[in-house]
Design goal:
CATH class of the largest domain in chain A: Alpha Beta
Number of helices of chain A: 14
Number of strands of chain A: 27
Shape of chain A: globular
Oligomer: homodimer
Number of domains of chain A: 3
Strand content of chain A: 25-35%
CATH architecture of the largest domain in chain A: 2-Layer Sandwich
Strand order of the largest sheet of chain A: 3-9-10-16-13-12-11-24-27-23-22
Distance between the termini of chain A: 28 Å
Chain lengths: ~500, ~500
């Protein structure tokens, strides 16, 4: 803890790497491209899971579990899907190792070669729609509203902890519907669930939009997304929700009889968020001293640090600190009493700052005499001496004001770095400037144009925002006519 | 639902297979040896997870996540471990597919061969202990009390849904300690947690014991287990807790400095339960009409079936049924109102019986006039007409009496099929009889003896029970001296 983190303003990327490491969130593993999620990082993911799972259930979804391994031939059943996913996947070819006859280790047993290889799921549309074929006969079996919590793999040569790893944890919803309208409605409903989750729970404001044709999910008719801005002005796709049309139903021959006894292919959606969100959470709120966690998602919302070195002080302070801990816990607050007497208070302050605990309470013998607590908030670092009596309400209000404060701060950052531009020069200045940001500009709808901009400015079209009115204009690069603005940004 | 299940007394194995299928718990998948866990089956597993996770946290454990893929060479670092697990694992050899130049599908890209192959984790001791090396330097870093919820794979040629599948879901605890005593204490503590979970939550009584040398976990010093008896008298290992000594610390060079600044290898435990428990739950309690679920683990504890065909009846009955549903839900009861008017009551009765819902409430217009409810319990099929007023308490008591009743019934079954025997002839009669059961007999401690008995009677030593006093005797097969009795049984 002696060494400071790199400053965000000097090296944002290194700041992130060091923060993930020092705050004990995750680390690289001996398995190429894969991470170990350490207990503190996993506790954040667990909070997210719990909240999302509740929201999925409240919207009528149930969980199920499908196999990790997908028969190789399944991938090529949907024409676009195979190009998107077959090219970066882990392939299982054998089912046994054996002792190396010429050494001490083990080798792959050539006699245990599989007839058909499997891939580790990069996403589960194929195996799930193959299964849905058995589950769906008539309109009475619809809608089918299923979610899966799982690990997936996409081979990744340049991993970044949480943001891009070969294996990651996620949830994938896969729903089946009798009509296109209903499937589109589901797609948008889940986009809304993700938006609410991101803004209310993670305090990360997002923009809802639709991906341009060339950026959509392989196999989707439409890909909707939520895009968040990180503190360095870059975009991070925080969740996607796909309207899959009848593409997978056709690929896996999933039909149903409607109420008029006519047979049709089933309509589909899929939607997912992943451990990437832990990366987004870190980059949206944290500062040069460490994590800043919104109270909703923080593993500990409050840490109590007793100030008591001598035994007689400890005797006086510790029982009060324990009482306070119990009192807060009973009120439903996630609280940690740090009574480890091998560490000094100063060390603890820095450590819990690094770990992003929203509220710190310091309690010494003088506080006990005065019947006060010193309460500090992590986000603004404001400290206040508060009367013990009634402090629970104070703390509850503080937690909720930190939660809102973080969202407001993130919104302000986004507003400050959100630029409506009408010339390529201007766009260049924004995207190559220190702060980067989102650029709202006209685009002619052509893939080549988007690719040229990507090549020159390293920025991609993040989405066509949903709430933007149509507006006649000219493409920022080609000058060709355009009907609406889209968002360009560099992205994670 | 027209067709009856096979009777347990006629074909227990087919009864199990059909029940799993008809109660919508799970099905086989196109991926060899793997299952799809359907929503109703998964909901049971979720309840188990939630309960266990709470118990792990209450005993000081935290969750983390380690990679799915383990470098091949890791497996051979621990001498016994490799023999146990290298022989039945999924091997990843490539990281890309490509279009088949001679066809329409995809083939493994030979240029994407991995330098070192990976296996899909059959269990995670190796990769976890490789990671612990970085986490443990001094006694201050100990104990390390970590659990992981994950999927694992062990290649399986003869899968049985839940009981034995290539991929299964589980939790694996991996703890590190400064002393052997502390690690043994942890091993037994988790055995106790599993026992409590099994008996109090699943209503399955278990016997705690230790595995004989030749049945222990590859790499363990001692393997403790809990053994449950199924209704056909067979044993099912419901959980294991291993004292690993310093074996993995030595294999992965994990040492620590103790308080006296002396360096020593770290002491380890690991412990796990899996989706197998869903199989155990089914086989322990269910009957010829379907599942019988203990209220603690049942996705729905109560189902309300309104009796109302005509619109005027529905108008009268449905609001009361909905009220009752809300009332029960607010009291924390998991309740389902089955108001689907495309199905007849008789169909619903059979369906919810099949699904094992502990309590069924029937509510018709006459009940409304009389201010009563017809309440039936799934386990004993007793029905009673109960006054609406105060019915919540009645239902709460009923749920708790079903929970205890199931445990008592399972205990009685075990007592009736638990035989202390002193001759091989007697043992043969029990194990080859209709009911099977557990046989408590003397054994000379020799592997050959156990193997001979296994060959002849298809029974294995389930465990050396923990609570049995020492007792001089003679081996049931060889007559050689023995110091204590062990449990023999056929097993799943």
């Amino acid at each position: 803890m002696s060494q400071k983190l790199p400053k965000r303003s000097e090296d944002y990327s290194q700041w992130y790497i060091e923060l993930v490491k020092r705050a004990d969130l995750a680390q690289h593993s001996p398995t190429r491209g894969c991470m170990v999620i350490k207990p503190y990082g996993y506790a954040i993911w667990e909070r997210m899971q719990q909240q999302l799972d509740g929201m999925f259930k409240a919207t009528g979804h149930v969980n199920a579990y499908f196999p990790l391994l997908i028969p190789k031939s399944f991938l090529s059943r949907e024409a676009e899907h195979v190009d998107g996913f077959a090219m970066e996947c882990a392939v299982v070819t054998h089912h046994r190792l054996k002792r190396d006859p010429n050494g001490t280790g083990v080798i792959v047993d050539p006699e245990a070669k599989l007839e058909e290889e499997y891939v580790i799921r990069p996403t589960s549309e194929t195996i799930i729609w193959d299964t849905y074929k058995d589950w769906i006969q008539s309109y009475r079996d619809l809608p089918l509203l299923i979610n899966q919590w799982a690990n997936v793999m996409r081979w990744e040569m340049k991993p970044r902890l949480f943001l891009r790893t070969a294996e990651f944890l996620w949830q994938e919803g896969h729903t089946a519907h009798a009509t296109a309208e209903e499937a589109v409605e589901e797609t948008l409903k889940m986009l809304e669930v993700y938006t609410q989750f991101s803004e209310e729970f993670l305090a990360i404001p997002v923009i809802q939009g639709i991906k341009p044709e060339h950026e959509k999910f392989p196999g989707a008719v439409d890909t909707y997304c939520i895009e968040a801005m990180m503190q360095d002005g870059k975009a991070l796709q925080a969740g996607t929700s796909h309207f899959l049309g009848q593409n997978f139903a056709k690929a896996f021959d999933v039909t149903f009889l409607d109420a008029e006894n006519k047979r049709d292919f089933v309509w589909a959606t899929s939607w997912g968020v992943s451990t990437r969100l832990v990366g987004a959470l870190i980059m949206a709120h944290s500062d040069d001293d460490g994590l800043v966690l919104p109270p909703s998602v923080a593993p500990y919302q409050v840490v109590i640090v007793p100030l008591a070195n001598k035994p007689e002080e400890q005797e006086k302070v510790l029982p009060v600190a324990k009482n306070l801990e119990n009192h807060l816990r009973q009120a439903g607050i996630r609280v940690k009493l740090d009574d480890d007497d091998s560490k000094r208070p100063g060390w603890k302050f820095a450590e819990w700052e690094l770990k992003g605990v929203p509220v710190r309470i310091v309690l010494g013998s003088r506080d006990i005499e005065n019947k006060t607590l010193e309460i500090a908030r992590r986000d603004t670092r404001e400290k206040e001496s508060v009367a013990m009596e009634g402090s629970l309400t104070y703390i509850q209000n503080l937690l909720s004001s930190i939660q809102t404060g973080l969202l407001d701060k993130a919104k302000a950052l986004r507003t400050a770095n959100f630029h409506t531009v009408d010339s390529y020069e201007e766009m260049k200045n924004v995207l190559q400037g220190d702060k980067g940001g989102f650029v709202l500009a006209h685009w002619d709808g052509k893939r080549e144009t988007a690719e040229k901009i990507k090549e020159e400015l390293k920025a991609t079209i993040r989405c066509i925002p949903r709430d933007m009115p149509e507006e006649e204009g000219k493409c920022i690069l080609t000058g060709a006519p355009s009907k609406r603005r889209v968002i360009f940004a560099k992205a994670y």
